[in-house]
What does this fold into?
Amino acid sequence: MPGPGEKAAPKRFKGDFDLVKQFIRKYNCLCAAYNLVDPQEKCERLVDYCSRSVRLFIESLPSYQRGQWAQLEKDVLKYYDADLDETRYIPDQLAELAEEWQHIKIIDLATWKEYQREFLMKAGWLRSRDKVTKEMEAGYFWQGIHRKFRQDIEIRLFATNPTLRSI
It folds into this structure.
């Protein structure tokens, strides 16, 4: 196994909830690459890649002391709030984003793309977890466009397709 700080070693884990899954995944890959299968040794080597405070905490866990790798892995994910990364956004945040953006004039392509990126980052995550429907996503997106720009878009849409009906 590579020593801490070496190129193939995982980055030192300092307890960040948004990095804990990535850290455990990289550590498991490293163990597989170096044929480290003994649960006791996996537990002992894990702390080599952790900050002092994380190491002290992990060493106090019963799963670490008993050399139970499967349980230690679950404990680390639990105590370092890996689930927080899974609850990144809620639908209210999409509504808030739309409310915020409807007051911003979109006068150039860069601003339009910035709106799309911010919106799609949240909406895409929410849609992938079935937290919003496609219709809700479309409604919030349209709502987030500044009123004047929305009117300009509608005029162009109606000009190219007169059979469209306004809602």
